Amino acid sequence: MNYRHAYHAGNFADVLKHTALLSVLLHLRKKQKPFAVIDTHAGRSIYDIAGAEAQKTGEASAGFLRLLTLSSVPGVLSRYVDIVRGFGQGLYPGSPLIAAQMLRPNDRLLAIESQPGEYDELAKQLAAFANARAIHGDGYGELLRLLPPRERRGVILIDPPYEDEDEFARAADTLVSAHRRFATAIYMLWYPAKEQPKVSATAGELLNAGIESLVRIDLDVGVKLAPEREGRRPPMNATGLLIVNPPFGFTNEMQTVLPFLAETLAQGPNPTSRVEILAER
């Protein structure tokens, strides 16, 4: 595995993904019934954004750390900033720890990680939460094995590193299979800029599979390649999520938050954001 999230933790993609996840979790908490959170590619769950790896890319400085300099942020971003700040200076939590912070006594987190070293740290971090469990295994296979959860309410986050050429197709196929087993769940499929051409086709596949509620959100921070970088692998400039069964109010909240993030996290001219309702029942 070549991808190491330590270089990218706290970047604008994390800000979007974790803000959207937190918005969903806050909605689930509005009802007394318990819910489950399943994270298919959980990672190590805590990252040193003051360390050498993060400093080498500077992605956290252009991402989450910009929000810390502001006196106020709109909507769910305020709760997001408070949660991350609570882990201490120089530390950034991954989605498992953000989710664990939102669990009530009867809620449950299942965080899956395939890489041994990452899994060991994930298990260590989640040991402090009685209703959170780290699972060592393949995120796609383990997800299907775990569905449907006993809670019959929940959110599934699918956010692979997209190292393999067929990663997006596999993630999308797994989502369709998971939906057949647990149709009422909220599914969040994250993708980076390089997967943009496949997103519309995948959205069509999800709708053809019987999914009746689907929203797409995108954030482009306007990164432009400097001349000396031509021919090299470009930095990520855009990211997004396909959300199946988004909760009530989610779309409106994202329509407030995303333009603010595009402006605040801009790294070049013409940053953009989009919230598109693809299907609504």
Query: What's the overall geometry?
Result: globular
Termini gap: 40 Å
Give the helix tally: 10
Strand adjacency order, main sheet? 5-4-1-6-7-9-8-10
Radius of gyration of CA atoms, rounded to a whole number: 18 Å
In CATH terms, the superfamily is Vaccinia Virus protein VP39
Total count of domains: 1
CATH class division? Alpha Beta
Second CATH tier, the architecture: 3-Layer(aba) Sandwich
Account of the 3D structure:
- Residues 228-232 have low confidence and may be disordered.
- The protein is an alpha/beta fold and 281 residues long.
- It has one domain (5-207): Vaccinia Virus protein VP39 (Rossmann fold), CATH 3.40.50.150.
- The radius of gyration is 18 Å and the shape is globular.
- It has helices at residues 12-28, 52-57, 64-68, 77-85, 95-101, 116-126, 139-146, 167-181, 196-208, 250-264, and strands at 36-39, 46-48, 91-93, 108-113, 132-136, 154-158, 186-192, 214-220, 238-244, 272-279.
Give a topology summary:
Elements: H1 12-28, E1 36-39, E2 46-48, H2 52-57, H3 64-68, H4 77-85, E3 91-93, H5 95-101, E4 108-113, H6 116-126, E5 132-136, H7 139-146, E6 154-158, H8 167-181, E7 186-192, H9 196-208, E8 214-220, E9 238-244, H10 250-264, E10 272-279
Parallel strand pairs: 1-4, 1-6, 4-5, 6-7
Antiparallel strand pairs: 2-3, 7-9, 8-9, 8-10
Helix pairs in contact: 1-10, 7-8, 8-9
